[in-house]
Amino acid sequence: MTYANELDRFMPRPDVRERHEGLVNAPAALVFDVAMQLDPQAIPLVRAIFWLRGKVMRSTPVTRMPQGLVAETMRLGWGVLSHRQGRELVMGAVTRPWEADVRFRSVAAEQFAEFAEPDLVKIVWTLEAEPLGQALTRFGSETRALATDAAARRKFLRYWRLARFGIVLIRWLMLPAIRREAERRYREHEGLVARPS
User: Fold this and answer.
1) What is the pLDDT, as a whole number, of residue 3?
2) Which partner from 62, 122, 166, 173 sits 20 to 30 angstroms from 48, CA to CA?
3) Is the pTM of the predicted complex or chain greater than 0.85?
4) Residue 173 CB neighbours (<10 A)
């Protein structure tokens, strides 16, 4: 599965690209909903990665309320670039990821591809649920990043060499968490449906 055409609208030639996907034994709409509502920091190792970044970068501690992935990223400044209900979501923002206290700023979908304000990195990421059957879904997520100029690219790639491992690990940890929760909910739903009244 690939939603490259949709991502290509916003960032056809990224500086970095990471893609992760796997199969889930649950309907696509349910998998997509679980992915949108997942709180990544409910996963202990993900929480530890964020804590470690804060310590290494000497970030200002932030009080957060547990909430879903999409709601939290939007609260942080990300914007929706494209959304196909129950199938695909593309989020985007610009930022300086090498700063200790990262701030994200959304850019309108129609301006994102051409956005070129200097000393920034444009980032897009997806949630994707492709139905392969009534209760089989290929779930994927892709992240792309592109610096707006050479100076930002140098700073970003220096940062990425170190941060990449934590970022990729978070993605790897999210996939099984989404699979477990979606399959659990589907089993519970099927158990209720199958139970005689």
Assistant:
1) 53
2) 122
3) yes
4) 16
